[in-house]
Amino acid sequence: MAIDKKSLKRVVWENIDEKRSKILALTSEIFNHPELGYKEHQTAALVKEYLDGLGLKYREDIALTGLRSDVPGRADKAWIGLMCELDAIICFEHPAADKLTGAAHACGHHMQIGAALGALTGLIVAGALKHLDGGVSLLVVPAEEPVELDYRTSLLREGKIQFFGGKQEFLRLGEFDDIDAVLIVHADSEPPASRKTLLTTSSNGFLIKRVNFIGREAHAGVFPWDGINALNACLMGLLGIHVQRETFREEDVVRVHPIITHGGDAVNIVPANVRMETYVRAATIEAMGDANTKVNRALKAGALCVGGQCEIENIPGYLPFMADSGLNRIYGENVRILCGNDSVVEGYHLAGSTDAGDISQFRPTIHPMVGGVQGKVHTRHFTIIDPETAILTPAKALAGSVIDLLFDGAKQAQMIRSTFQPRFNTNDYNNLWAKICKE
User: Is the pTM of this model over 0.85?
Assistant: First the structure.
């Protein structure tokens, strides 16, 4: 029996409300068991258990811990990817942090999983796919947070991964080849209560840098003049970065934020080996390259200043994110129906980064930020204060967007896909990262 789009949305949203307790229980369980990237075995098991309850099949162990579930519609005219992230961030100070690893869901990835699975639940239970001319793929992806670089380097050397980011691995493995549009939500950072959704238009990309300053050890009290102080080399390098900051244009939104991961071996020995990590972030690929050249120059100058040496390792980070305006419009309209016209803020660039940026270079993608939280992301204060806004509203908006895209011959999905211009092919993408890292 035919059903109009408005009625279909209403039925799907009612089913999400009916399954509210189950959706929120899963979200809470994931929050209570945070895991870091490429180690999310328990989180993946919870998602698989939930999918089993929906009677859905899935492929598992994609990019080590990820999974994918495909749900076909009545026709095969387009496929929409509902994407979410398995991992947590390191924040030892968070009250819910794992005491050993520091893993904590202080970035809201548990909310993403709840929203994506909530949307899928509403579509499945309501039988909506039999009225839609395309399918839905749930893409549950590991390792968005680029942490534990030594561990990921070991995975790379063992041939288990080629990129540090989980979505980049999904991209490399071809998991986005048959996807026409990608939808993912993310927690906003302490939004005002009235703001249910922030429709981001773009965000920074970044490059990962690991730096090793090499000096010469000596007794720090008796013969300090015999040493070459690698810590001083590092500090001069940091100062060199600082004096470059006025050369960064405001519109490029450059961010360089180093940490010293090893400052010396003993207080009475002149440091001979000092290690540092940093990201070089910017709004465009060109600005990333320019800032990276300046940072390299400063680091080398710091080593030269004291007569030491400097080894710089550049590692692929994430490309800048570019939201698809058509998808943003569709998602925003659904939020306005659910929450009112004043609930959506449009047009915003984020200085943070996500590996969804790499996906947005290949496929139409959106990454709206959702409210219902308190405290800034990546801090001990981050928590959900309104599950309706944080999880259930985005679940409904995602489901409503899928219906809009796939209803009536999947016309909207096909239009968005046909007007989208990929910025890279796979070969150009790999060459780009190789060029940036070489520089």
Answer: yes
Nearest alpha carbon to residue 357 among 148, 189, 173, 144: 144
Q: How far apart are CA 18 and CA 195, in angstroms?
A: 25
Q: What is the pLDDT of residues 216-232, one digit of tens each?
A: 999 999 999 999 999 99
Give per-residue pLDDT as tens, 10-64.
999 999 999 999 999 999 999 999 999 999 999 999 999 999 999 999 999 999 9
Q: Give the strand pairing for 321-322 and 197-203.
A: antiparallel
- Secondary-structure breakdown of the chain: helix, strand, coil percentages, each rounded to the nearest 5: 45, 20, 35
3-state secondary structure of 197: strand
Work out whether strand 197-203 and strand 344-350 pair parallel, antiparallel, or are unpaired: parallel
Read off the amino acid at residue 391: I
Task: Give which of 198, 59, 56 is closest to 123, Cα–Cα.
Answer: 56
What's the CA angle centered on 246, arms 245 and 247, to 5 degrees? 90
Tens digits of per-residue pLDDT, 231-277?
999 999 999 999 999 999 999 999 999 999 999 999 999 999 999 99
Residue 57 C-beta-side C-alpha neighbours within 13 Å:
3
Distances (CA, A) of 82 to 91, 239, 260: 27, 44, 38
Q: Is 28 helix (H, G, I), strand (E, B) or coil?
A: helix
At 292, the amino acid letter reads: N
Q: Model confidence over 273-306: pLDDT tens digits? A: 999 999 999 999 999 999 999 999 999 999 999 9
State the amino acid at position 318 in one-letter form.
Y
* Cα dist from 83 to 136, 146, 202, whole Å: 10, 18, 18
H or E element in which residue 289 lies: helix 285-306
Element (H, E) at 199: strand 197-203
Domains in the chain, start-ordered, CATH in brackets? 5-202+320-429 (3.40.630.10), 205-317 (3.30.70.360)
